[in-house]
Amino acid sequence: MVVLRGEILVRVLLDNISKFFGKVKAVSDLNLEIKDGEFVAFLGPSGCGKTTTLLMIAGIYKPSKGRILFDDEDVTDLPPKDRNVGMVFQSYALYPHMTVYDNIAFPLKLKKVPKQEIDRKVKEVAKLLQIDELLDRKPAQLSGGQRQRVALGRALVKEPDVLLLDEPLSNLDAKLRILMRAEIKRLQRELRITTIYVTHDQVEAMSMADRIAVMNKGRLQQYADPQTLYNKPANLFVAGFIGSPPMNLIEGSITERNGSYYFETHSFKYALPRDIGSLVASKTSEVILGVRPEDIRVIIDGRGSSDSAIIGTVYVVEPLGRDLLINVKINGVLIKILAPTDIRLESGQKIMFTINRAKLHIFDKKTGEAII
Amino acid sequence: MMRVGIRKRKTRALLRRIAVIAVVLLIAVIPAIPIWLMYGWIISQSFSGRVILGILPSKLTIENWRFLWSPITMGEKEYPNIWPITLNTLFLALGVAGLVVLVSSLSGYALSRMDFKGRTGMMQFIIALHAFPSVILLIALFVILNKLGLYGKGFMTLVGIILIKAGLEIPMATWIIKGFFDSIPWDLEWAALVDGCSRWRAWRSIILPLVLPGIGAVSIFSFLSGWSEFLLVFTYVAQEEYYTLPVMIYHMIGEFIHIDWGMLAALGLFYAIPTIIFFSVSQKVLLKIYVGGVKG
User: Fold this and answer.
1) How many structural domains does chain B have?
2) B237 domain residue, yes or no
3) Chain A nearest CA to B29, separation (Å)
4) Which pLDDT band holds residue B292 (cuts at 50, 70, 90)?
């Protein structure tokens, strides 16, 4: 990497920003710090405010409230051209009347970089992204993956302080997406540019980002590294959004009998460890129990059976290749279980299973917040 | 059994095709025949001394085109040389086209892309403006021209007419161009802003090249309307040397006693030439539509 300056370390701070479009609150009171050189993903369903936030960082939208700081400097009122950010749009937004070369050179031309240097940098970036064969083409003559690389090149060539990526992979086919996922991650590691990546695909976010900001309805739900998000979701939304197949969420209540605590639904009763039970019972009685499909173990032939085992009926079995996804019904409540493929099960068969108590999640039904 | 069915269906398909062709002929081709006949007449008339049955030329001559190199006389009356008149017309048409394109490409952008108070009201008002034909404005416009000192000032009167004509064309042109701006995704403009453009620069370097088809359309329309403008020139221009072609042709037809059909046909053909050139050039250059590249 000769031309592209390494170690561009800019810290981005979102200080209590909000954005309203008329009466619609697109983003509310968002506080977020993106460390220098960090790769952060904004994750959430469509309409959650993640792209709006990105456009505010780019300077396209002005926050209705709050400040945006780059390295402790307030950039809230700076127009996009003075922020030195690079951005890749979901639609790529390549200039259709320019060749690939001119597209990539455009930001440098605006910076009044000498012609020879522009030429050198464009060629260097093109080589880095393996599009040096395409420089004379127009965007209309490129495939989706090629356009994506050109858009990335245009964002990178200006050596941005912050790189913003708005769902850059969503228009690619599945195979190419996985390829580009690794490519972008490698590029970010190599160039160490502070990067913000917007996506609605949790797998993308989990596999690429250092930290993930999960958003819903304009509000930040949780901001943590992928492992923490997975193991310790802060609320019901994060629990349900992260993970595939999704976490089983079962409504019920906490009851106490003779010093023992139970999670009880209309269809089954499950004994809770005393410490967990008393902690939850001290806060609320109406709860939602969350357990990931891989944290449930099917008991075969009664081996390893215990008093906390639950009995259910196999509803349907979905082979996923690497493992089986077993849908079990317990009086109307459907639970998904991931099991090794060597189990033979038929629909309608009765089975027993146990839940890994260390991986149990309990949420307050009213607030949705995690209790444990 | 099966075969009969297919044959029947084949016949029906054939009949349907014949019907379609008949309708096309009836609607698109037959009405065009008189128009083509008229063009044929004008061309053959302009190059012949005598015309048989109104269409067959005889006695090939370029005598009818003599206005190109000598003054035009009809009976007693001598008309000004054709070339200054042509230049006047060209000046008027290009002036109108230039002004219309300049203003409407900016105002169309503003109406399409910028958020300001009264935007919707303004758009409705613009359409209402177009409802006024210039005839009913003749007197009011005369007063304005007079006040501005543009009436009866020869060349400056033509400038005044350019202003009026452009003013009448701009509302519609703005609407047309606005539609083209509307079709450009915001992403493109945002990308330009992030890449380092000011809003003005983004408009000039990115957005404008993408609405060239619209600008082409508007410039053709406004050029043609300037080129064929009759009423305003006829009303406001007093001196013969500042006539435009339509007005001169009108005056020549007016001299009914001495009318020279051959020369009039040649003059008409001459009048149509710049239009054809402008149309074909702007169509090739400006109507190059960029397809794709915007969405993935």
Assistant:
1) 2
2) yes
3) 37
4) very low
Nearest residue on chain A to B291, judged by CA atoms? Answer: A140
Q: Which domain holds residue A109?
A: 12-235
B30, B53, B68 - which closes a domain: B68
Q: Of B188, B190, B293, which is closest to A60 when you measure between CB atoms?
A: B190
Whole domain around residue B7: which residue ranges? 2-68
Look at residue A4 and tell me whether its pLDDT is greater than 60.
no
Chain A residue with CA closest to B212: the answer is: A97
Last-in-domain residue among B68, B97, B119:
B68
Say if residues A77 and A62 touch (Cβ distance below 8 Å): yes
Dump pLDDT digits (tens) for A50-72. 999 999 999 999 999 999 999 98
pLDDT at position B150? 85
User: Under 8 Å CB-to-CB from A47, ≥6 apart: which residues?
Assistant: A217
Write a three-state SS string for A99-164: CHHHHHHHHHHHCCCCHHHHHHHHHHHHHHCCCCCCCCCCHHHCCHHHHHHHHHHHHHHCCCCEEE
Distances in whole angstroms, Cα of residue A368 to Cα of each of A43, A239, A265:
19, 10, 18
B294 in a structural domain: no
Question: What is the phi/psi pair of residue A310, to 5°?
Answer: -115, 145
ipTM of the complex: 0.87
Report the C-alpha gap between A372 and A287 in whole angstroms.
Answer: 11
Summarised one tens digit per residue, pLDDT across range A112-132 is 999 999 999 999 999 988 899
Rounded to an integer, what is the distance from CA A351 to the centroid of its chain? 35
Whole-prediction pTM = 0.82
B209 vs A contacts (CB less than 8 Å): 97
d(CA A156, CA B207): 23
Using a CB-CB cut-off of 8 Å, the residues of chain B touching A86 are 194
Kindly state whether residues B23 and B40 are assigned to the same domain.
Answer: yes
Give me the residue from B187, B196, B198 closest to A111, CB to CB.
B196
Beta bridge partners of A15: A67
> Within a domain: residue B292?
no
Nearest to A358 by CA among A287, A297, A307: A297
